[in-house]
Amino acid sequence: ATRLLAESPVPDAAHLVLAALAAVLLWAALPHSALAGWVAAIVGATLGRLLTRQQLRTSSKSPETKVSLVRLTVVAVALAWGVGAARAAPIIPTDHLAILLTVFAGLIAAATVTLAADAVGFYVYVSILLLPFWFGIGASGSGQFQIIALILVPLFGATMSVLYRRSHEASRDYLRAVKRLEVSEGDARRERSFLDALLGGAPIAIAALDKDSKVLGVNGAFEQLFGYQPFEVVGKNLSDLIVPGQALAEARELETQLRLTGRADTEVDRRTRDGRLIPVRMSAAAVADVAER
């Protein structure tokens, strides 16, 4: 419903332009009263569709009701074009009829975009648009042009329906993927916020590292214990900051142990920002991170 109501008014303007061009083209071939009635029906149905969409955007009606009302306006536009063309087909010259066929092809091609979110609406639109016109072509004569047109019109409608179905399925799969991604990202953000709050309130010093031992973040207790601000440590190797020179070999052994077993736990001396050595109990654990951070 949202996509149908968000449709641009450009396609509606195209209907009005095409109706005006049809009036100019058929001015000398059709009775003026019949031509005026046809154009008036197209204009009325098109404006009704435009106004209906605008009103439904702020309406509290259910999505199903909104879709049904939009479909009714689509039916009205298709009827205006289809019935008018059916009445004109037996009267107008063959070359004018060929141009009118081209106009209908453009209307259907445009509908594959404007009705991309409503498969039922598209199939109803194509059927109501082409069926009366097809009968009108049959009533216009039995010459070679009419025979070819009677074959091509349903063939074109079927072909466009197949192409539309494929496009509609691809669009639906894309929207489902986007929705799943939005849900996954929302879950990840909530988990990240919960973890940040949990670590931030922990009374022990905690540093989160990536697989290369570079700092991703530290909590407040780490800042107080070692004297570093977050901007001073993030992105840097933790060993370069807090491991004294004589303990670097031991630190590398602990990193190897962590990679092999997933855990490391020992008592060591570590260096603060001002150079003091302090005894700490170090516990480390490897954590699988689906966000790869």
Please tell me about this protein's structure.
- There is one protein chain.
- By secondary structure, the chain is mainly alpha-helical.
- It is 69% helix and 9% strand.
- It has 11 helices and 4 strands, in the order H-H-H-H-H-H-H-E-E-H-H-H-H-E-E.
- The strands form 2 sheets. Strands 1-2 form a two-stranded antiparallel ribbon. Strands 3-4 form a two-stranded antiparallel sheet.
- Helix 6 (119-139) runs antiparallel to helix 7.
- It starts with a helix and ends in an 8-residue tail after the last strand.
Cα(first) to Cα(last) distance is: 38 Å
Query: Beta-strand level of the residues, as a percent range?
Result: 5-15%
**Strand line-up of the largest beta sheet:** 1-2
The helix-and-strand class reads mainly alpha
Q: Main β-sheet: number of strands, strand sense, barrel status? A: 2 strands, antiparallel
**Percent of residues in helical segments?**
55-70%
The SSE order reads HHHHHHHEEHHHHEE
Shape, please? rod-shaped
Radius of gyration: 35 Å
Count the DSSP helices. Answer: 11
Count of DSSP strands: 4
Low-confidence stretches: none
